[in-house]
Amino acid sequence: MKLQENVLPEVESIWDAIEKNAWIPWVSMAEVAKKREQPIITKGEGIYLEDVHGNQYLDASSGPVAVNYGYGNTRIADALKDQLSKLHFLHYRIAFTQVVADVFRKIAELTPGSLNRIHLNITGSDAVEGAIKIARGYYDDPEKNKILSLYGSYHGLSYGTLSITGFTSFKDPFRLNIPSGGLHVPPPYCYRCPYGLVYPGCDIMCAQMIDEAIKGEGANAIAAFIGEPIMGVGGVITPPKEYWPLVKEICDKHDVLLILDEVMTGWGRTGKLFACEHWNVEPDMMTMAKGLSGVYQGISAIAVQEKIFDKFKDQKFYHSHTQSCSPLSCAAALAAISFIEDENLVAKVAEKGKYLRKKLEELREDSAAVGDIRGKGLFQGMELVSDREQKLRFSSKDPAFTGILEKKFLERGMIIRIGGYNSDTLYFTPPLIIENDEIDQMCEITWEVLKEIA
Fold first, then answer.
1. What digits encode the pLDDT tens for the residues 419-429?
2. Is CATH 3.40.640.10 the right assignment for the domain spanning 74-342?
3. Whole-model pTM?
């Protein structure tokens, strides 16, 4: 697989526009414009993307972790075309329509337990921002307003969500203006236990410290604890089986709301419809986005228990955007949910996840660069190390090497994400429609790259 060769006039035109006019999130524009190495994509089908030269790339990242139902899913595309021909937009303060009501009903039917009140918005950050407002508004005591979360967690980049996102690097440029009230404790990161303990003889100290943090601040000061069931941007950090049940017990004991952020893990990604079902834990609130429509349209949701809604039902809740409750985004969500159900996708992901895990464990046995494998379903992480015994970060000797690694994958026709909280983790999060032979292809490319870097 060759890298982008900038020989076509339209390619030069695209790069000129990016260099002169674009400001793209999460990247250094100076580096992107200077290197001009990223492929220029013309179309996508299934789990593959194709560039202007006809080169194919297996998208092991799902765009990232969002294109759950593949590129060019005709079922969802046809639903969007049909809705466009009928009614592309209707403002929620003017009137209602069937497709919007159907989304409220369907999400409420599928979310665990009594999470049966649904608030719709556009992005994952929107949903988390709204959940923060709800948690703080739920209590009559205005002093009970702090939100507890985890170091290494990712909940969004808006000002409110930045206060609870656990990455210093995301906050530093804006630190003086980030709202107060966000507190953090270490994550359930067994491979690099922050307490120097070893599971299972650790007494689940990572959960016990949530109890200590609440008692230390005072339960009358903490409104909610928010966490990703499996930490995504943090490096697919997967807690031990006792963690979430114990966290729920601690929150209930102190009258602290439990918010689970299922923006990345929801809608079948982990082999359950929602990841919290792996631990039989029902939160007080749940946020979701990405997989709700497979990003065929922007839509997110907050699901809350009736007890929480009762607090707000006689007042206006000011959290929305013009495109909240859009008929078009609701049509995409309904089609995506229908696709999940008709294809028996959740059960298939559970089986494919076992197959992927087996292949990744085999790679770990064959390569000293692999330190840890973790995750559930098609949400798997492979942490790379430069010294397995000492668990040294893969990029500890050369911080630029992860960029070189991404390029090596790209040269072999695979797009993969590398990141993590205090780690260099490869994210194996392909579209949920991937087949076993494509998993073989994904792992074979990974093996070739691991051999080269060894």
1. 999 899 999 99
2. yes
3. 0.95
